[in-house]
Design brief:
The protein is α/β, with parallel strands linked by helices. The chain has a five-stranded parallel β-sheet. About 35% of the residues lie in helices and about 10% in strands. It has a single domain, classed as Alpha/beta knot (3-Layer(aba) Sandwich).
């Protein structure tokens, strides 16, 4: 990535009580437009499992933090909102499993990965629009993976944590659109203002 497009030095390092476990596919997570790849770079208490690897089966207990309840984040219309969970449970911390991918891909994760079908599902409250401008999502409440994590952590941790992670979503969208030759003066100004990598 060109120096003007690299914002790696602007990434925060956040140590949180919530443990985030992302389940994605290797072919997807290495794409420049993928947002889940930022999770282990930003959240110290996180884990990423890549589906589709030979001889590597998913074992939920290898990724979760012992002593904390686990929930699957997915926009099921019948699922309770995070805000409606017992505040005493949220205060102690939870394991939040987040499937990465489009709606069709993420809908299969719960059925195909061991231990997920038994987990309770939670969702975040619908948002008016997505900050992820790289692709158009036609589904209601369609958000990028990192964007959904940001809003979830806004409930589980703080609004400041949400703000910092959403800023990453904005910067990634800015950099991707700039690389595609679709820049705007606002996008470019944000990128130039961010600390850039001297090795880029």
């Amino acid at each position: 990535m060109r120096k003007t497009l690299c914002f790696c030095l602007a990434l925060p390092s956040l140590s949180l009580k919530t443990r985030i476990i992302v389940i994605g596919r290797f072919k997807e997570i290495i794409q420049p437009s993928n947002t889940a790849r930022f999770v282990p770079l930003v959240l110290t208490n996180s884990s990423v499992y890549l589906r589709g690897q030979v001889d590597r089966n998913f074992r939920l207990e290898e990724h979760t933090q012992e002593g904390m309840p686990s929930y699957l984040l997915y926009p099921d219309f019948d699922a309770p909102y995070l805000e409606d969970l017992d505040p005493h449970i949220l205060a102690r911390g939870i394991n939040l499993i987040v499937p990465d991918g489009n709606w069709r891909q993420t809908s299969k994760v719960r059925r195909r990965e061991a231990g997920l079908v038994e987990l309770p599902i939670v969702q975040i409250k619908p948002k008016d629009s997505s900050l992820y401008r790289i692709r158009t999502e036609r589904k209601p409440n369609g958000l990028a993976t990192l964007e959904a994590i940001a809003y979830a952590l806004g409930v589980l941790e703080s609004q400041e944590v949400e703000r910092q992670i959403l800023e990453i979503v904005r910067m990634q969208a800015d950099a991707t659109l700039e690389a595609r030759g679709q820049p705007s003066e606002e996008n470019r100004a944000r990128l130039l203002a961010a600390p850039s990598c001297t090795l880029a």
